[in-house]
Amino acid sequence: MTEMEKDIISPWDAHNQQLVSHVHPPDWQNPKPASRYNLVVIGAGTAGLVCAAGAAGLGAKVALIERHLMGGDCLNVGCVPSKAVIRAARAAAAVRDAGAFGVRVPEGVTVDFGQAMERMRRLRAAIAPHDSVQRFSGLGIDVFIGEGRFVDGHTVEAAGERLNFKKAVIATGARAAAPPIRGLQDISYLTNETVFSLTELPKRLAVIGAGPVGCEMAQAFARFGSQVLLLETLHGILPREDADASGIVLESMQKDGVKLLCCGKDLKLGRADGGKIRLTVESHGKQYDEVVDQLLVAVGRAPNVENLGLEKAGVTFNKKGVQVNDRLQTSQPDIYAAGDICSPYQFTHAADFMARIVIRNALFFGRATASALTIPWCTYTEPEIAHVGLYEKQAQEQGLAIDTFTRELREVDRAILEGHAKGLARVHVRKGTDKIVGATIVAANAGDLISEITLAMTHKLGLGRIANTIHPYPTQAEVIRQLGDAYNRTRLTPLAKFLFSRLMAWRR
Length: 508
Description:
Blueprint: H1 3-8, H2 14-23, E1 37-42, H3 46-57, E2 62-66, H4 72-76, H5 79-96, H6 113-127, H7 133-138, E3 142-145, E4 148-152, E5 155-158, E6 161-170, E7 174-176, E8 204-208, H8 212-224, E9 227-231, H9 243-255, E10 259-261, E11 265-271, E12 277-283, E13 286-292, E14 294-297, E15 301-303, H10 310-313, E16 317-318, E17 321-322, E18 335-337, H11 348-363, E19 376-379, E20 384-389, H12 392-397, E21 402-408, H13 413-418, E22 424-430, E23 436-443, H14 446-458, H15 463-467, H16 478-490, H17 494-507
Parallel strand pairs: 1-2, 1-6, 2-3, 6-18, 8-9, 8-14, 9-10
Antiparallel strand pairs: 4-5, 5-6, 7-15, 11-12, 12-13, 16-17, 19-20, 20-23, 21-22, 22-23
């Protein structure tokens, strides 16, 4: 393994050894290349794996190239390990808060951080076979472990072998990139790629960046027992999200002990005694000088475009990644791209559906477009915050007149009974209609709830249709039906109400 991989796959215990045996087996022998491939895929993260499996399942001859770890960020350093850690932290919080339900925990909460991280590694290794070299080889795909780079517009060199192709897909993703912070280059710090290698809980942890990754990890480590400082240059947290929604999440995080230093200015980093880190920053006019045990940098991403021979293939790229058209073609028409390497939506599910577009367009003369996708997303704090479509500000910027309907979870019986009454569901519709253009949900399972709205938007079902759909009682999903009811009430204009009352009087 490379030094980078050793930082990620650490400690070298039985679980990580099992993981590597699936995603980068040291004894793997690359196959002899076919004379020509229908599709060559560079990168075995979500986009690459979906492209390769989908194309092979439809009868294409496929080669898949991966220089690091099969499964990409999602399996190794992203969705899978983070959600395992978040779930352990949620269990700690549930025990801490059990008294509100009449459940007494005499000894209080004791977290074995090492065991929580061991559980994460064990579960990650258990999921790894789905993304393994063995599985994809078993699908009839020629899997090459090693560097892949273009020689020309129809040839890739992989681990010393030349692969000729009809079509190719660049799915090399993106990586954590250090932002320009004074002193950062002089200290050792964590990123989303290395934080999951921790085996000891840092007593004091600083997190730079209050985006989704920063908020998720800040809350999780605070729940484990770390003293957490969360630093953000803008005001508040999750600046992309609805302000009311992010405010609810911030309140929850502060309850867990996260200290937010927002509107941060003049951040400086340096070494402190005992291998610790000193940071100084100004927040809301006050100067802070803090010493922490670990620093997590949760801002900055860079596309993996280096050493791919993109110039030789005639593929245009810039600092944001590979440039593609709406059909995900690059400047070389026979080469496509999918996933984080070319998308502003850096989510596993977005990469999955972009890959499906590539399969249709590259192999079957399709005309599918990325702009037609309705892409939801979720930040897995507690409560979760999920969104799809336009925000109110975006609608205003586009000159789109909207009506907004909001329902707070304190008005939903199941949320009250569960102790999750702090949250909301908000839907924007085109003014005077029930056509949904965007929605935000803050709830314990907002990531699940948003799918109903996404389904409605994808298939052009309005809020009126949702109002007419029976939802089980009591469930938190009732909040979505209640939004539909709120829309229906707007249809009862004063004139309509007057006419109905006259009708009722006549029929008495």
